[in-house]
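Here we describe the complex-level prediction in full. Unlike the single-chain runs in Section 2.1, the two entities below were treated as one system.
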Amino acid sequence: MSKHLKFLTALAFGVAAAGLVAAGPASAKVEGDTIIIGSAISFTGKYSTNGIHASNGYNLGVKRVNEMGGVMVGGKAYKLKIKYYDDESTPLRTAQLAERLIKQDGIKFILGPYSSATTKAMAPITEKYKIPMVESEGASRSLFTQGYKYLFAVLSTSEQYLASSIALAAEIAKKNGRKPSDVRVAMAFENDPFSLDVRAGVIDDINKFGMKIVVDDKLPRDLADMSATLTKVKALKPDLLVVSGHSKGAATAARQIKELKIDVPMIAMTHCEAAKIVKLFGAATNDFLCPTQWAETLSYKGKYFGTAAEYDKLFKATYDGYKNVPYQAAQASAAVLVWKDAFERANSFDTEKLRQALSETNMKTFYGNIKFSKAGNNIAKPMVLRQIQNGKFNVVAPSKWASHKVNWPRKVPGM
Amino acid sequence: MLDNITLLAIAPLLNVQLLLDGLFIGAIFALAAYGLALVWGVMNVKNLAQGDFVMMGGYIAFVMTKLGIHPIFGLPVAIVFMFGFGWMVYRVIIYRVIGKDLFTSLLATFGMAIVIQQLLNLIFSPDVMVAESGFAIRSYLGGMVTVADIKLISFLLAAVLAALVITFMKYSRMGQAIRATAQDPRAARVMGIDTERVYAFTFALNAAICGAAGVLISMIWVLQPFFGMTYSIRAFVIVTAAGLGNLPGVIIAGLGLGAAEQFAGFILGAELQQFTVVGLLVAILVWRQVQQSRHRQVVR
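The structure predicted for the assembly as a whole is:
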């Protein structure tokens, strides 16, 4: 509660301060020696938890860049600053605020909002005014099929979230002397744009290997019950069960897999960390496979934060109350680094030159490599798959970054 | 769809699993629906915040776990707290809308639902939470049927609560006053019943019942500030199907709805599980209409 109160007070001050700034002359993109980047992000409403994680990531990125000498453009060192608005987790508001940032505040550089839905609302506006946006929190692949030219995303797109689990299942089948096409897959996805994107990626890979789908259920958004679906899974005994449905889906699946004693050799689901399933359901979650954008155990390294582990340490030292650093924060910091890199390579504040520089980004960071496709998504960083092994999240795929061997079939004590 | 029906025929034990899961959750639906039937029948207020009361109860159990107390002990706490909360809500809002037209009470309770959701969101964040009972999970019939102890305990607790409320309504002075007021508020007033107090008590009792249902839900499903709607919808379906003032009907409809949902989820897929709930309501209303038009003809 106190965290929220503190946050509310901060927000009230923020709003008051924003009002004062707005009352002055329409501020430009660069004021004195400060480059101002605009962001409408969710400080309140249903995305607020992750919105705050992301803004913490942005702030840490800005702090680090400024501490290390700022951004060099035309031989002069500039400091970075972010102008925030709260989009209240509503895409409509995000779009209004994008107009406001660009038209009223004169902002020329944008950091993305939190969530695919709000990013989808913002992209048409930035595109209309030809303002480049670097975003780190909108993974939906539909963002990258619209031909947007000013949108750049540092994270892996949603269809990659669970696709790696299909490849892993094929690999394991081969190792056991079976054909990948013999693998039978049960799928349970929430009926929302993000999860359906994840599903589309899974289906592409299933078709590639010629696997068989035995259950394909779509869970309603506000229903926290999967027992009918899982009863089917229990009867059909598939080789792989994939689940995606935000934190609700992960919590419901973990709880009911435990209650119904579902014995499937391989289970993969998104949002394991956010739903805190290990803490809540203990050993029953053993050997679940969980995809992640980033993990502090990866051997990624960059100039600004050092290794992933060093970023993890710095983040925890900077912000209270974090036991684990969410990847939402890490990728937000990475987006700030992308902006800094682009400013310096463009050596200009001209948005067209910056767009060009952004599209040529090729950098190594603590968050992974960053290189954008023509569509604007990052193609240099894979999604990694972690397995819950004795309560710890260990990277098991892809093999290049794996720190541990995958456990197969999954073993659950007492089953 | 046909595959799934065949599956049920080949492995009949699956039916047992679905039926049990359905009955366990149906009992909790019935509890929330009973509260609604009470408020609807006695005060003619259709409470759209029913599900949000349930969520509040759930969060009370969640807070208990945070304090290191087993969530099942949240039951008495939720009952007492929600009774007080219900009484307060009656004094502040509900008494103004009794006797007004349908839309006033719908709007007032809908607004209340939004306020509760946003308050829960501010206090607990929009993250999904659960309370874990840590109770054993038992397998029967060669592992084909599993029953989590917490579900069985919830079912029994729901039954005990329902029995207590029924006894209370039948034999206590207040229970009789509530029933009298439901039949004819004016006559009740003439007989010296303080109907204002009866209304406040009824609404508070409803909130307490919902709170109890929420505590059980927290250990079986999940909590989220905006998930109350799930229970509101089911409560309305059950009460509409059973008819007001028909307590055995509410219980049977609740259990039936729970089971129907599980079978629909299995046969038609989870995406049609909730559709079934609303579909059943439409079917029941149509059937009622036909039945009543026949009755009307007889009367004519």
